[in-house]
């Protein structure tokens, strides 16, 4: 069963992420960063962001337009799929902003692929 209930609310997840701005410890771990932000300790079931996006695509859960606050925003950067948390108003947060956790306009990160609800169906 697919549910959008997560251990942490979207607001709690965004606060968790904002407290880590400037950290370089998460570089290369965009999916793990989002999973942990939403309160899951175990792996998401996807090794790479591209696998996560493929799952959302197969379940018809990818939307166009500016991602709403608390959604997962998906991008292609340097030929690889990556994910960030949406702060709303066109801003996203996650690793990869000058090698650190940072906030960036969603339309400047890379090729925008769409947004999905913050669902981690295989994480515990």
Automatic annotation (TrEMBL):
This is NlpC/P60 family protein.
């Amino acid at each position: 069963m697919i549910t959008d209930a997560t251990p942490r609310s979207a607001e709690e997840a965004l606060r968790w992420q904002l407290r880590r701005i400037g950290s370089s410890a998460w570089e290369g771990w965009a999916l793990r960063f989002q999973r942990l932000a939403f309160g899951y300790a175990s792996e998401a079931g996807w090794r790479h962001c591209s696998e996560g996006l493929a799952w959302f695509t197969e379940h018809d859960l990818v939307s166009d337009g500016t991602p709403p606050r608390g959604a997962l925003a998906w991008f292609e950067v340097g030929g690889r799929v990556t994910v960030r948390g949406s702060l709303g108003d066109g801003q996203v947060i996650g690793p990869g902003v000058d090698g650190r956790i940072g906030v960036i306009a969603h339309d400047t990160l890379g090729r925008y692929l769409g947004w999905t609800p913050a669902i981690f169906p295989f994480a515990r």
